[in-house]
Every structure is written in structure tokens, then in C-alpha cells.
């Protein structure tokens, strides 16, 4: 099998004040966390963003007005698609760690909650997408379990300095899949008795089950 490019949709989530001291040098421009997704139609159900605490990120100048926070690798890929201040050259204004970004207040265009927060997910790969993930716990098993871990493990919240009020209170249902209901990820994770975000194999099966979709011709469900 040859290597094929993977096409993602990039979701821009605007960083809102209060800005952490670390981001102050960037003042004046719009700053976004940028997340890569295969499921842009689920953005109505987004409840937070995920990043890797130990991940290396940068604030990259994209054009006159916008700065994107993502991995260097993603910035390079964007630079080759005309998304960089300088053609084919990422322009990094500031190096950042995921840890420094936890708790950022974000505004996402379609999300039900006006403000959502950047939270830690420990299974993020920094060589995929943007290294930042938009969280849709209604439909994405990884997101559901990472949220479950944060909600049920005070020690995990303490380790990463996550305030209780940053953890989304409710899952926002958006798609009804007849066999699984409108919180398909949670239902499948429960059925498979998945205990944490680290259960890689079971989560792969949960993702397989929740992505077997057929288009039903009404707004209940798309199963493709
Ligand atoms: B998907 P593929 Cl609702 N590390 O978006 C880990 N996971 C990452 C990532 C990274 N660096 N970058 C993107 N992803 C996630 C929405 C979604 C996604 C739903 C349901 C399933 C689903 C909301 N999260 O993905 O390896 C992102 O999560 C199921 C696989 O390129 C992205 O789409 O196939 C998906 O993985 C890209 O995975």
C-alpha cells in the first residue's frame, strides 16, 4: 500500500482572554488553536479541545491577522499550502508546551457552549494532524474516554492543573444512530467495558463500530 495524503478539516478555535503570561508577546493578532478532524459535521457537539501536555507546539504566523497554535510538523504542511506568512516556511513566533496551554479559554464557531477549554489528552500523537484534537464526546470514543478519565480522576485533574469548572458538564447529543442512540460513543464504550483512554485496542473497536454509518435520508442518522 502506498502512502497517501490524509485530508483533514482544520477547525480554528479562537483563544479568548484572559491570556496566560506566556502568550502576551503575541498581543494584537488573533490567536487560534487549530485542530484536525475527519468529522467536521460533528462540530455542533464539540465540548472542549484536547492537547498533549508533554507535546511541543508553536505559535505560527499564518498571515497578516492570524496566528495558529499547532505542531511544527503541521505548520510545515500548512506552509506548503499557502498558509504561512512566508511561502513554504513556517514562521514560529513562540515555542510552547501543551502543559502551558491547558485551560485556555476558546471560542469555537459551532459549539453549543460559548466558551470551551483546552484540556489534556494523553494519547495524542504529535505526528498526526495538528497535534490538537477537537473533542466531541457524543460521537468520538477517544474523546468520551478522555473526558471520563478527567471527570472521575481528581488526581489526574490535579496533576495537570485542570480546574473543575473547565471540565465540560454535559455531553451534547447531535446524531442519533438507531442501534446506539444519541450518545453513541458512550454507549459503545460501556458495551465494550472500556475503562480508560489508554485501552487502545478496545477503543479501535469502538471507533470501528461508531463509524459504520449508513445515510438514512432524515436528520436522525448518517450511516455510510
Ligand atoms: B476525529 P486518522 Cl466525532 N492524535 O475528530 C490523536 N488523534 C487525533 C489526532 C492526533 N494528533 N489528530 C486528530 N485526531 C483524531 C472528531 C471525531 C474523530 C469524531 C469521531 C471519530 C473521529 C472529534 N474528535 O476519529 O488516524 C480526530 O478525531 C476517529 C478515528 O487520521 C480525527 O477525527 O484516521 C481522527 O483522530 C483522525 O484519525
Automatic annotation (TrEMBL):
<keyword id="KW-0067">ATP-binding</keyword>
<comment type="similarity">
    <text>Belongs to the class-I aminoacyl-tRNA synthetase family.</text>
</comment>
<keyword id="KW-0436">Ligase</keyword>
<keyword id="KW-0648">Protein biosynthesis</keyword>
<protein>
    <recommendedName>
        <fullName>Leucine--tRNA ligase</fullName>
    </recommendedName>
</protein>
<keyword id="KW-0547">Nucleotide-binding</keyword>
<keyword id="KW-0030">Aminoacyl-tRNA synthetase</keyword>
Amino acid at each position: 500500500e502506498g502512502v497517501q495524503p490524509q485530508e483533514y478539516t482544520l477547525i480554528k478555535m479562537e483563544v479568548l482572554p484572559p491570556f496566560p503570561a506566556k502568550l502576551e508577546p503575541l498581543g494584537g493578532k488573533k490567536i487560534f488553536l487549530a485542530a484536525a478532524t475527519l468529522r467536521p459535521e460533528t462540530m455542533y457537539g464539540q465540548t472542549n479541545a484536547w492537547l498533549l501536555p508533554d507535546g511541543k507546539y508553536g505559535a505560527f504566523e499564518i498571515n497578516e491577522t492570524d496566528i495558529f497554535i499547532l505542531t511544527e510538523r503541521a505548520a510545515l504542511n500548512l506552509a506548503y499550502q499557502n498558509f504561512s506568512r512566508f511561502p513554504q516556511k513556517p514562521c514560529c513566533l513562540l515555542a510552547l508546551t501543551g502543559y502551558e496551554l491547558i485551560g485556555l479559554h476558546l471560542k469555537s464557531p459551532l459549539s453549543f457552549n460559548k466558551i470551551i477549554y483546552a484540556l489534556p489528552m494523553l494519547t495524542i500523537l504529535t505526528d498526526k494532524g495538528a497535534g490538537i484534537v477537537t473533542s466531541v464526546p457524543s460521537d468520538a470514543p477517544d474523546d468520551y474516554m478522555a473526558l471520563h478519565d478527567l471527570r472521575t480522576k481528581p488526581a489526574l485533574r490535579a496533576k495537570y492543573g485542570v480546574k473543575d469548572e473547565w471540565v465540560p458538564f454535559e455531553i451534547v447529543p447531535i446524531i442519533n444512530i438507531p442501534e446506539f442512540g444519541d450518545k453513541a460513543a458512550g454507549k459503545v464504550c460501556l458495551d465494550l467495558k472500556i475503562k480508560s483512554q489508554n485501552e487502545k485496542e478496545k477503543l479501535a473497536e469502538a471507533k470501528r463500530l461508531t463509524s459504520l454509518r449508513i445515510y438514512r435520508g432524515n436528520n436522525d442518522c448518517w450511516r455510510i
